[in-house]
Specification:
The complex is a heterodimer.
Chain A lengths: L6 E5 L8 H13 L6 H15 L6 E6 L2 E5 L5 E6 L2 E7 L5 E8 L3
Parallel strand pairs in A: 1-6
Antiparallel strand pairs in A: 2-3, 3-4, 4-5, 5-6
Helix pairs in contact in A: 1-2
Chain B lengths: L17 H13 L10 H18 L9 E7 L1 H13 L5 H16 L4 H4 L14 E5 L5 E5 L9 H4 L2 H28 L9 H9 L3 E6 L2 E7 L16
Helix pairs in contact in B: 1-7, 1-8, 2-8, 3-7, 4-7, 7-8
The chains are: A alpha+beta, B alpha+beta.
Chain lengths: ~110, ~240
Amino acid sequence: MLRSMALAATIDPRPLALSARDRRIVDHALRTLPPGADFGEALRALRDAVAAHIPNGRVFVLGTTDAGPIVGSIVSGVGIVDSERGVELVRVAPGGACARLGRFAGRG
Amino acid sequence: MRITLGFDPRLHQYGDVTASVHAILQAWCEVDWFEPSRSSDEAAATLFRQHHARAYAHAPDIFAADVEIRFAQGSWSEFGAWCDRVRNDHSWDWKFSALKAMSFRHAKARGWSREAEARNLPVNETRPGDLLVRFSAPSGAEIVMWNGVPAHVEGLDERLYGDARDHARFYVGFAHSDVIDCLEWQMAEGKDALDEDPFWPLLGCYRAGLYPFSLDRGTVVLFRFVDGPPALPRARLLRRR
């Protein structure tokens, strides 16, 4: 049921890659993240941020990579995933392609 | 163009809400997105009035007692105009401020949560048929997420381009929250009867080929397409020299 996908090597360059709602949620989550947060802490921060901005807000499993699940919004495809570089913000396209938007949380 | 699940829900059990989950998922997969509707305006209006009446019964502070139903039809440019209108109207956010608020209130009143619903599921494992998944990180953080109900319409990216594709994706995402809310409503109720679920008649509207655009607490436009999505482009055969 979960789709396996590879992260694109390049960062999505579109300056408006996030909607206003997604941006508010991401900013909220980032403000609550402790330094060096792991994926579980990032996921909890994202879930709490979604709940703060959307009544009954939910996070969805958007796919999987070798490092684990991609979790985020099923509407926009914006989510987070664990990687060697730390937790990354990504966008999953409807066809399954996954592009990196930037770092969400670092290791160490 | 339809959405397909990666499993046959009829092969899986969902406790006291098994029959309703089967019915809801079947309805979701029966929606033939963006095709001309064969339903009458009256039939579609009946469905939406059922939805609105149930929503009002549960949240009279959010929804008006009566709803004015208007009808519109057209092609992609007209559909896109309605999508843009509701996306850009910040004074009334039907999905996020009204329906989700009602859904949240209902779950809380029933003492239901995704975490409680998923308590018997294995951790960090997905099984065919599971609608929820429990994720646990080494740090101990545990999150329950939705997994089993897709929003990807097969063929949409191949048959639609530019603004039409953008508007189609927006609307399906718009509607996807309704199928999730429909399922969660039943889980919170703990029973199969769908006769009070406000989201069930909404799924009926989509299945009937009428697409609601709520303009305010008491006004909705039901839109129908007059033409279907363009066919897949034919492969061109190159003439041999």
